[in-house]
């Protein structure tokens, strides 16, 4: 019997709210409902776009830095923080175990050597990053502007080099040009390299200092032999699991080697990126506040306009809970419609930008050439659910105004 009464109670509230929603399509209520719906839609649209751009920007910058350094680097335990530190001896057993480790996508040795690129009119410092046959060229290939990457053979040391567009433009170097690099050591040395590729990642701070060569060139210049390297570069499955993979790898890493994540190598850069989350959080809070204020205003106006009806319902014995439920259902319809419009528009704009990239950026200032988008439907779903719950909870406040309406006054006044 109680279930039947409750069902009829809810059906009555829904029936009345549906009729009132249809009648509110005329007059002043129509304008208020449209403004409230637009406010909700605009708030959701801004939140979706802001989060997608923030996630996309963070991901793009992270991928650029990781493209140069990997997620994790294994280097010798050396208190000397200079670029040319002590080498480590290659450990075949460790390499085999690490390559087969869960979570490790790429495991690559590397060697570095600092030098000075000199032309007839200018010179510039550079870090030659020596790589072997197993190096993952995906990042460089995706950012190539001219030429191609080089391939390595076991029998011959390659003299090819891939340099950045920043370096090429500054020194007026071109594809297939000879590039002379001088090394300050005893005795001083010079090497001639052939430029086979020019890349441009957009991250000028790293572009201008790195060039990629055969690892054996760096080993010979450092007089190390084939068994000594500067370290290992490791790529994991994702940026979010770096810390857990670092802890796992530390258990199998020899005591002479230390592990360092890319975020600890560039703490200021990643701290700056984390500030974007704070900015997005502020935007989300502001948009929810705007939507809630508009919904409260709309609901109060709807209640005041229907005060005569509320008085009649109270005179007929309707309880405050029933009347409040009627207006909450009306407000919920407005919220859901606003959410639908905001989601369709926001996701649509993001998909268009993702495919066509019509909003461009100055790469020198933002490190990327167009506004990046990273849509996460899990995050969007959470935004919608959270926004709907907050809005409905806030709307309980204006619904309390129903209790202050006296049937005798509103009916007599009418």
Secondary-structure element series: HHEEHEEHEEHEEHEHEEHEHHHHHHHH
Number of helices: 16
CA radius of gyration: 32 Å
Residue ranges: pLDDT <50 for 5 or more in a row?
Answer: 1-9
Task: Based on Cα principal axes, name the global outline.
Answer: elongated
Strand tally, please?
12
Q: What is the domain total for the residues?
A: 2
Describe the 3D structure.
There is one protein chain. The chain starts with a helix and ends with a helix. 55% of the residues lie in helices and 18% in strands. Strand 7 (178-183) and strand 8 (189-199) form a beta hairpin. The chain has helices spanning 2-23, 27-69, 92-99, 138-142, 165-171, 204-207, 215-221, 242-250, 262-265, 267-305, 307-315, 320-356, 363-366, 377-394, 396-399, 407-413, and strands spanning 72-76, 88-89, 104-118, 123-131, 144-147, 160-164, 178-183, 189-199, 210-214, 228-229, 231-236, 257-261. Strands 1, 3, 4, 5, 6, 7, 8, 9, 11 and 12 form a ten-stranded mixed beta sheet that branches. Strands 2-10 form a two-stranded antiparallel ribbon.
């Amino acid at each position: 019997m109680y279930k039947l009464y409750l069902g009829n109670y809810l059906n009555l509230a829904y029936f009345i709210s549906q009729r009132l929603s249809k009648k509110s399509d005329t007059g002043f209520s129509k304008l208020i409902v449209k403004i409230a719906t637009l406010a909700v839609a605009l708030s959701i649209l801004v939140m979706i776009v802001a989060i997608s751009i923030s996630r996309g920007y963070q991901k793009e910058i992270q991928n650029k830095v990781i493209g140069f350094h990997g997620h994790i680097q294994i280097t010798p335990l050396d208190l000397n923080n200079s670029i040319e530190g002590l080498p480590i001896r290659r450990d075949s057993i460790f390499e085999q175990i690490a390559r087969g480790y869960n979570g490790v996508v790429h495991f690559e040795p590397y060697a570095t050597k600092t030098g000075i690129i000199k032309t007839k009119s200018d010179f510039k410092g550079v870090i030659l990053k020596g790589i072997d046959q197993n190096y993952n060229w995906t990042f460089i290939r995706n950012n190539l502007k001219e030429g191609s990457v080089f391939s390595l053979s076991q029998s011959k040391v390659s003299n090819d080099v891939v340099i950045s567009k920043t370096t090429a433009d500054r020194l007026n170097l071109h594809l297939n040009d000879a590039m002379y690099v001088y090394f300050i050591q005893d005795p001083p040395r010079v090497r001639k390299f052939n430029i086979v590729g020019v890349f441009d990642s957009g991250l000028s701070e790293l572009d201008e200092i790195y060039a990629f060569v055969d690892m054996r060139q760096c080993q010979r210049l450092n007089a190390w032999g084939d068994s000594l390297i500067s370290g290992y570069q490791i790529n994991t499955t994702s940026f979010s699991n770096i810390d857990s993979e670092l802890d796992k790898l530390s258990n199998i890493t020899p005591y002479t080697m230390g592990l360092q994540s890319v975020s600890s190598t560039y703490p200021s850069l990643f701290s700056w990126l984390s500030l974007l989350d704070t900015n997005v959080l502020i935007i989300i809070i502001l948009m929810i506040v705007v939507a809630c204020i508009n919904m409260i205003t709309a609901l109060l106006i709807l209640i005041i306009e229907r005060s005569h009806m509320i008085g009649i319902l109270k005179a007929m014995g309707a309880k405050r809970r029933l009347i409040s439920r009627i207006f909450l259902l009306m407000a919920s319809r407005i919220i859901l419609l606003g959410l639908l419009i905001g989601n369709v528009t926001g996701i649509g704009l993001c998909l268009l930008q993702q495919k066509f990239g019509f909003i461009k950026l100055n790469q020198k200032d933002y490190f990327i050439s167009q506004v990046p988008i990273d849509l996460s439907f899990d995050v969007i779903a959470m935004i919608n659910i959270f926004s709907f719950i907050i809005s409905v909870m806030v709307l309980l406040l204006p619904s309390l105004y129903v209790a202050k309406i006296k049937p005798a006054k509103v009916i007599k006044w009418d």
